[in-house]
Amino acid sequence: MTAPSINPAEAAHFNALAADWWNPEGSSAMLHRLNPARLAYIRAAIDRHWGGDGKTLRPLAGKRAIDVGCGAGLLAEPLARLGAEVTGVDAAQENVAVASAHAAASGLAIRYEHGDIADPAFAGPLGTFDLVTSMEVIEHVVDPSTFLDALAARLADGGLMILSTPNRTAASRLLLVEAAEAVGAIPKGTHDWDKFLTPDELETLATASGLVVSDMTGIGPDMKTRGFRTGGSTALNYIAVLRRA
Prior knowledge:
The protein contains eight helices and eight strands; from the N terminus they run ααβαβαβαβαβααβββ. By secondary structure, the chain is α/β, with parallel strands linked by helices. The protein has one domain: 3-Layer(aba) Sandwich (Rossmann fold). The protein has an eight-stranded mixed β-sheet. The radius of gyration is 17 Å and the shape is globular. The two termini are 33 Å apart.
């Protein structure tokens, strides 16, 4: 499928990784290690935005959420467990198949769709969502501006958008591309460093899409847990909350 934001080579790359996505020691091991930090940040943002106390098991009950570039569902499934009516969208058809099968086996009712969020014919019928998420995706699309416009079009009034992406720095080139691919932590060809966005660039794109960045923080290694944590430097990776301006 070729449409406004999908890079066919990127889709093919992730298609090839689909079957191994849920293996915490496989090709997506880095995402499994990253996911807890992202989820904690997302949960805190949800509570701040909708006045939660952090203790409610289903703070997204009655709300619609969409995860764009959902892969095989590593984020979509926790969002469903938080009570949301979840839609996952991905450019790689094999990802959608694996995600659907895993959700069904987990007893979760998640709607997964193969398509391009920037294609109005595909995305328009999906409607709008209270929560729009897209983790480590904007650096893989053809045109980040078009992609962010498309995400903004899916965001309901009063809704919340959360994005994460690598920063374009010397440190990210060394650690997230060269070193990570050399030791097999990330499959070769996953990242094109030249397509990484700096925080300033993301904020500029957000403004052009009618959005404002209301919070941003870095994501970096946690040496104690061998996972990741949020807070501190944005030199490697960062996560941000966006709202309508």
